């Protein structure tokens, strides 16, 4: 949703003064961030900078040691789990499927948050599952056990489960893991379509900086548990930012296909072209 589009409706997600860690190890300290509604936000940064930790906190999978994550202005930790799951979907890193479960059954689990005490499986649930299978190109795998699939196939099945949940906010931790270049683009194009057609707010952690620049409306660059810069990739990504965040010498040029920034690394043995 580019070109100055605005979203008036939709659910809000933000972090206020959050501190995050595991045991006695602090990862994120006093971080503030507001996720733009109806847009695609991508979090980038070096390994162990706090990207996935922040995403886990926003998904209610990790409780802050201080501060709050707010979903529609309410502390997400104080919001009932099923209510959160009906509004916010999550694709974690390296998810594990129950042994022997089929693709269709796993994708169908994305509909659980919409099931009440007396609500049974409906035609709407069938439609949501079928559309998710089709969108991720795994419909022909519907009856296959998930543990028999390749890494790339399993990743697409997990994305299908997240899509079948039909939430207004979708958080994805490395959604292109295990995928070849073609399927990476397919997945990111699919997420873009969902954003533009349904107004779904997306937050994804990506390692590939150039893909992040191409697909993000809003880029969040992190280092050492803090946000170094955030905004439109075309406005914030330059040689200085890449050097500060990744410690890498580079040139930043315009992508001839998308007009978004392309980061060209410069190694120690980089040779200047002849004049």
From TrEMBL:
Q: Keyword Transferase, does the record have it?
A: no
A single GO molecular function, which one?
ATP hydrolysis activity
Q: Which domain of life is it from?
A: Bacteria
Keywords of this protein's UniProt record, alphabetized?
ATP-binding, Cell membrane, Ion transport, Iron, Iron transport, Membrane, Nucleotide-binding, Transport
Q: Name one GO cellular component term.
A: plasma membrane
Instruction: List the residue ranges forming a coiled coil, or say none.
Output: none
What is the scientific name of the source organism? Streptomyces triticagri
Q: Which GO terms describe its biological process?
A: iron ion transport
Write down what this protein is called: ABC transporter ATP-binding protein
Q: Where in the cell is it found?
A: Cell membrane
- Record's InterPro entries? AAA+_ATPase, ABC_transporter-like_ATP-bd, ABC_transporter-like_CS, P-loop_NTPase, Siderophore_ABC-ATPase
**Which residue ranges does the record assign to the ABC transporter domain?**
13-249
The membrane-topology field of this record reads:
Peripheral membrane protein
Q: A Pfam family matched by this chain, by name?
A: ABC_tran
